[in-house]
Design goal:
The chain is an alpha/beta fold. It has ten helices and 15 strands. The C terminus is likely disordered.
């Protein structure tokens, strides 16, 4: 096993051009940790927000970027019994602290991963964790979405949105999504019952009596979404931190509202893997870039028109039968 590895890190905070390939020391797993050889890494908006300014608060030296990992266990630390070398796993370790997924190797707590379903490859595995956990924790844990309820999912063709549509349908909900007209067939193909072209129609005039709204857009979308929620409904915002005025307005209408930030979640990932194995959840891949082209992946993602997920292929010569 090599003592060094390739990785992608910003040389300084800034635009996509600051991303560079570096050679750095390969990490070693500590107690309860595993060492994973990364085959693919998911690309998320959180990555370019961190690349720009650190995102989650003051940071020192710019880190190796990336949260979503799919790969093979190479070694296990003291006390680990869940996995052995050779096991294929995927996960979103350490969030919001950097997992360092844009690299050939990652170490993290064993329970921040689950076994990758055999029916998907590592590109699919890397596309799932952060976005699907965000959707699962928002809809299932926070909103407690139940069969027969009506849910409105903004940006339904996006990374989180397209997975949220599928999870909501798996829960037995009636799903309404917002998306550009060109993406309506895609969103309906995911299981959405209705799709609204937000560029042509004001969703507040097209939707009524919704039980849950999932807002991944931000701006004025959360405030406007209060108009379509029934009394007792739930608004989950992924883009806008809690605003006192919005919370007060929601409370006055009998609506529960708040900002949700995803967390590492062994039980949630197990549930997601089960949906994948049952054929009820699949990450749609927009584009796959090589690790060295991470800057191009960020440029593409920041345009804001992706359909599904962007993934970096990390392993150059994967073992036969994988990736």
């Amino acid at each position: 096993m090599p003592q060094t590895m390739r990785a992608i890190s910003p040389l300084e905070w800034g635009g996509p051009e600051v991303l560079a390939e570096i050679e750095t020391e390969r990490p070693e797993p500590g107690p309860t940790e595993i060492l994973v050889r990364v085959h693919a890494a998911g690309v998320n908006p959180a990555d370019w927000k961190i690349r720009t300014n650190g995102a989650f608060g003051p940071m020192g030296t710019p880190p190796i970027l990336g949260f979503d990992v799919s790969g093979t266990v190479e070694a296990v630390g003291r006390g680990v019994t869940l996995y052995r070398p050779g096991d294929e796993v995927f996960g979103m370790p350490r969030f919001p602290h950097q997992a360092g997924a844009y690299a050939e190797y990652v170490t993290a707590p064993a329970r921040h991963f689950v076994r990758k379903p055999a029916g998907i490859d590592h590109v699919q595995g890397a596309a799932l964790p952060l976005a699907s956990l965000t959707a699962w924790q928002s809809l299932v844990d926070t909103a407690r979405l139940a069969a027969g309820q009506r849910v409105l999912i903004h940006a339904a063709a996006g990374g989180v949105g397209h997975l949220a549509v599928q999870i909501a349908k798996a829960r037995g909900a009636y799903v309404i999504g917002t998306a550009r007209a060109a993406k309506h067939d895609f969103v309906r193909g995911l299981g959405a019952d209705e799709v609204i072209d937000y560029t042509a129609v004001d969703f507040t005039e097209a939707v009524r009596d919704v039980d849950v709204v999932l807002d991944a857009v931000g701006g004025d979308y959360s405030a406007r979404s209060l108009k379509v929620l029934r009394h007792g409904g739930t608004l989950v915002s992924l883009a806008s931190p809690d605003e006192p005025t919005l919370l007060a307005e929601a409370a006055a209408l009998g609506i529960t509202a708040g900002f949700t930030l995803v967390e590492p979640d062994y039980a949630g990932l197990k549930a997601i893997a089960a949906l994948v194995e049952e054929g009820r959840l699949r990450a749609e891949i927009d584009t796959v870039f090589e690790l060295v082209d991470a800057a191009k992946a960020h440029e593409y993602g920041e345009r804001g028109h992706t359909q599904g997920k962007i993934v970096l292929r990390v392993a150059q010569e994967p073992p036969a039968g994988r990736l």
